[in-house]
């Protein structure tokens, strides 16, 4: 078999050497190779060269790559592709297989490097080290055009063998160089006697070493010095402690440090942490607790138990004598208020006083004040606070904070003096006389929302509660604060009682004055609130009666006002007469009910605020001046005050409808329910009004007053309206009756009105000494009117009836 193979090889070799007379073209060769591959004669992959004229197998490509690596030691994959003449993709692929199968090779950044190459590089580095003592790894990496980490990784296993050096901080040092630097580090470290940062020590050493190796130009890293120092410390060539890697404390300093601490603490029984920091001890509490287990750490100092005993005896005396003491006054200046507070809590006498019925209190951290002392000061201030509350309560109603920017002095209403209007319907009915009321008076009043009392059964009470619900708390809180002494007042009274506290200063928020005021003011608030609650309870029944009486008075008078308002509709076309009638109604009936409401709301406000109010005659209607209405309105609070001011303004206006709107708003805000005039009530009131007028006409003896009553009665018969007309509007009112009366009755009425005007003119002109002729004329004219009174009465009481509309 072997002989046959040898024979075939010889024949194949001979065939290759024989020159063929027939040559195949490149295309034929390619087709031939493809055919052989199809026939599976060639069952392995063939690669083209970059020229396209040659084939190469993958195995041959690997062999050629390995040959190049063995020859050069370090070769680029790109250079291999150019040398072998195969596409870079195939070269990279086969190169990876070569490196993977050979542990002595590595592929780094597109280059294949063998271990023999690194051995030769290590020998070169060792030769250079002998010349310059140190070499930077970064410098070697730059020269070799590889990464520093790679250089360091290949050098580390060769240190001590091929490379006689020490690798530290990216630098290669010879043993002689390391020994020289070690001696420098040892000497410099032993010369330190105080805590130091080693980083500051390495700076001069680094400069010194650099000056010694000027030719190399390479600086020594601090890590190299630090590693040498750590090794020396481990070998106990230096004594001391190292913290955080760089903070070095020599043992000689630690010994001196402890001696200073012992000396200070034994002499003073305390030591401030600031002193410890000056001695270089940062963790003072841990240091002192480990050295003095019986001591107590405070905020700024560390104390011996004897300090507690000393302070305890002093505070015990103060508590027993119902006095006070500032512990900072007996403690050293190094103690802060926090220290004083902590040491006080450690005193047995203070602990006992705090537990047993609060016999004493600690205020402002350093003050120990006995409860007896506090009670004595509080009792004195409480009496003055009651006087303050009463004074502030009265002042708040006279000069309310919500007063407008225009300063106007409030004039309290005097309901016991001045003229009174008659009670009941007769006062509102008897309106025919000539009146002179000022047309322009300005009134304003702040309003105070009234709070109802529990247990009120009337509808006005329920409505007031609902209205006040949303704002009651805020309003009451604001009002209550007006009667409570402020902090400044309380602190001033404390200084008056204890002059020693004056130096503390009232502006200092941490002063004992502020703390005492904060303690006493809530007690004063509770006391004053209880007092006000008591007064409020006492006034509750009176307030309920007042509201019920006010509701009853307004029920009748406001219905009359609505009745009179309807009569004004007859004169809408006569603007001048309408204005006179509106103004007259505002001055009379409207003023009466407005004054009644304002007066009673003012009394209610005073009762609510605990102010004593004398009993007034409820039977007499209230008559107020413009300035008095203004004062009462301003004494009220919040929205009630605004609506009261609007009412006063409308009362001084020219339209009854504006007054009615503001009156309803104020009554509703006050919790009162105003009845609306319906047809049934209107008929009832007109009937009563007509009956009353008939009675007055029958008994009236004044010829001038009779005319207005007759005209009012005629308007009821003709228009079913209750007219309220002043003297100067009587003529216009009579003219509106022309179509409702027969000619003789109308003439009688106009003649009587003309005679009345003449009589009033004569009376007005008779000033000074009356002449006989003037008196005779007045008497004559009066007698004439009196003679016509039966005729005038007959217009409303006799057979002559007005035509119904």
TrEMBL record:
Residues 533-567 form a coiled coil. Pfam families: E3_UFM1_ligase (PF09743), UFL1 (PF23659), UFL1_C (PF25041), WHD_UFL1_5th (PF25870). Residues 682-795 form the E3 UFM1-protein ligase-like C-terminal domain. Residues 464-476 have a biased composition (Basic and acidic residues). The keyword Transferase applies. The keyword Transferase applies. Residues 404-413 have a biased composition (Polar residues). One of its GO terms (biological process) is regulation of proteasomal ubiquitin-dependent protein catabolic process. It comes from the Eukaryota. This is E3 UFM1-protein ligase 1 homolog.
């Amino acid at each position: 078999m072997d002989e046959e193979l040898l024979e075939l090889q010889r024949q194949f070799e001979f065939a290759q050497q024989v020159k063929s007379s027939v040559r195949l073209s490149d295309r034929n060769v390619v087709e031939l190779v493809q055919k052989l591959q199809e026939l599976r004669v060639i069952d392995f992959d063939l690669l083209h060269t970059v020229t396209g004229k040659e084939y190469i197998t993958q195995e041959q490509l690997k062999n050629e790559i390995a040959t190049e690596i063995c020859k050069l030691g370090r070769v680029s994959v790109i250079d291999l592709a150019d040398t072998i003449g195969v596409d870079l993709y195939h070269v990279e692929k086969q190169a990876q297989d070569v490196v993977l199968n050979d542990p002595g090779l590595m592929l780094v950044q597109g280059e294949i490097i063998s271990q023999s190459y690194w051995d030769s590089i290590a020998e070169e580095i060792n030769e250079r080290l002998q010349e310059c003592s140190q070499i930077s790894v970064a410098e070697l990496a730059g020269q070799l055009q590889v990464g520093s980490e790679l250089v360091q990784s290949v050098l580390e296993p060769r240190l001590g063998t091929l490379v006689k050096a020490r690798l530290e901080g990216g630098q290669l040092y010879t043993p002689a160089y390391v020994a020289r630097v070690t001696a420098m580090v040892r000497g410099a470290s032993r010369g330190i006697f105080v805590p130091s940062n080693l980083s500051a020590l390495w700076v001069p050493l680094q400069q010194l070493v650099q000056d010694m190796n000027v030719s190399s130009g390479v600086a020594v890293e601090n890590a190299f010095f630090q590693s040498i120092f750590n090794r020396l410390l481990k070998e106990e060539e230096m004594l001391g402690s190292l913290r955080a890697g760089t903070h070095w404390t020599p043992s000689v300093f630690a010994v001196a440090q402890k001696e200073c601490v012992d000396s200070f603490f034994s002499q003073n029984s305390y030591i401030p942490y600031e002193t410890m920091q000056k001695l270089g001890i940062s963790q003072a509490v841990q240091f002192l607790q480990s050295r003095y287990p019986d001591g107590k750490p405070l905020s700024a100092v560390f104390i011996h138990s004897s300090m507690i005993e000393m302070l305890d005896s002093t505070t015990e005396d103060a508590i027993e004598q119902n006095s006070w003491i500032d512990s900072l006054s007996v403690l050293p200046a190094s103690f802060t208020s926090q220290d004083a507070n902590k040491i006080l809590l450690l005193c047995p006498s203070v602990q006992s006083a705090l537990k047993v019925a609060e016999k004493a209190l600690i205020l402002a951290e350093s003050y120990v004040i006995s409860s007896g002392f506090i009670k004595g000061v509080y009792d004195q201030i409480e009496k003055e606070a009651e006087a303050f509350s009463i004074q502030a309560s009265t002042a708040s109603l006279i000069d309310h904070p919500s007063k407008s920017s225009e300063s106007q002095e409030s004039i309290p209403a005097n309901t016991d003096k001045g003229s009174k209007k008659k009670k009941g319907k007769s006062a509102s009915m008897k309106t025919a006389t000539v009146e002179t009321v000022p047309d322009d008076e300005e009134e304003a009043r702040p309003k105070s929302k009234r709070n109802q009392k529990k247990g009120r059964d009337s509808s006005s009470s329920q409505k007031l509660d609902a209205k006040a619900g949303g704002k009651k708390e805020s309003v009451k809180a604001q009002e209550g604060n007006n009667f409570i002494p402020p902090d400044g007042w309380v602190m001033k009274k404390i200084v008056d009682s204890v002059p020693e506290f004056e130096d503390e200063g009232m502006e200092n928020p941490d002063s004992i004055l502020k703390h005492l005021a904060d303690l006493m003011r809530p007690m004063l608030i509770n006391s004053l609130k209880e007092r006000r609650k008591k007064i409020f309870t006492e006034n509750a029944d009176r307030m309920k009666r007042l509201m019920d009486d006010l509701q009853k008075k307004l029920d009748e008078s406001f219905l009359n006002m609505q009745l009179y308002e309807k009569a004004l509709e007859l004169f809408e076309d006569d603007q001048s007469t309408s204005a006179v009638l509106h103004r007259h109604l505002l001055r009379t009936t409207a003023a009466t009910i407005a004054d009644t409401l304002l007066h009673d709301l003012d009394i209610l406000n005073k009762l609510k605020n605990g102010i004593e109010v004398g009993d007034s005659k409820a039977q007499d209607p209230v008559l107020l001046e413009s300035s008095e209405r203004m004062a009462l309105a301003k004494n009220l609070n919040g929205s009630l005050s605004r609506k009261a001011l609007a009412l006063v303004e409308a009362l001084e206006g020219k339209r009854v409808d504006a007054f009615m709107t503001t009156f309803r708003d104020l009554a509703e805000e006050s919790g009162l329910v105003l009845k609306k005039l319906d047809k049934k009530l209107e008929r009832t009131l007109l009937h009563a009004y007509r009956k009353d007028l008939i009675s007055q006409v029958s008994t009236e003896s004044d010829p001038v007053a009779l005319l207005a009553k007759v005209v009012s009665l005629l308007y009821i018969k003709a228009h079913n309206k209750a007219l309220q007309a002043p003297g100067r509007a009587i003529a216009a009112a009579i003219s509106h009756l022309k179509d409702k009366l027969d000619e003789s009755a109308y003439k009688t009425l106009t003649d009587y009105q003309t005679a009345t005007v003449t009589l009033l003119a004569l009376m007005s002109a008779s000033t000074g000494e009356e002449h006989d002729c003037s008196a005779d004329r007045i008497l004559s004219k009066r007698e004439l009117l009196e003679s016509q009174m039966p005729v005038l009465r007959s217009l409303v009481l006799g057979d002559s009836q007005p035509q119904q509309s």
